[in-house]
Amino acid sequence: MKSPKIAMRSLAVACLGIVAFVQAQNQTIQVQVGGTENESGGIFQFKPSSFNATNGSVITFEFSGNPGNHSITQSALSNPCQPMSEGFDSGWVLIPTGGVTPNPLWNLTITDDSNPIYFFCKQLIPSPHCAAGMVGTVNAPSSGTGSFNDFLNNAKQTKDSGQGVGALVGQGASASAVPGPLPNGATLFGTPAATAVSASSGSGTSSAASAGGTSSANAGSKIQYDSRIFALLAASMGIALM
Ligand SMILES: [Cu+2]
């Protein structure tokens, strides 16, 4: 039989274990959107581009790379540069030359860690960012089919990049707000819908937001309707949107 002292110590160790476990369940992972000119991968990348995250973990995408226009858009392994039906989407966030302070952030919460999550940037200018390697994975196998490298190779062979506008709510991960704050000069194009958007309701029909930010993304009618409702809601909450 254990002495009371050893029993107490065991209990303390068990408690510490539980605390560590709870903390592991609620990670915060910082991902830089866009890189710098002079680094490997250049300005078309997510950093880190591949990581694991348990349910409840928050992925904070920070638009802190070289100024430009980027999105975080969910796709599928076999179709890496096409917005996935009912996938998450940040919309395009344009950071003007010279950058802004503070950098806009987008928080994505993992809701299903049992399947890999794949995402890409749908910006086309000056060349499709997806094919240039601006892709990422969450909870993907470390090697072989479905791994980050497998997904990246698929993306690099893709000439086209879909421009459909998705939603804050995706498959296996969801956001509760659009990217923000948007300091003077930072602009959100193709505002994501509040609720899931299926491919049949217009995904893939919009045009790209230009690097200069002069054109807006024109989605299918249902998506546009959803976006307007959301923009109204967001505006009423004091969030500046274009
Ligand atoms: Cu990009």
UniProtKB/TrEMBL annotation:
Residues 1-24 form the signal peptide. SUPFAM superfamilies: Cupredoxins. The keyword Cell wall biogenesis/degradation does not apply. Keywords: Signal. The keyword Hydrolase does not apply. InterPro entries: Cupredoxin (IPR008972), Ser-rich/MCO-related (IPR052953). This is Extracellular serine-rich protein.
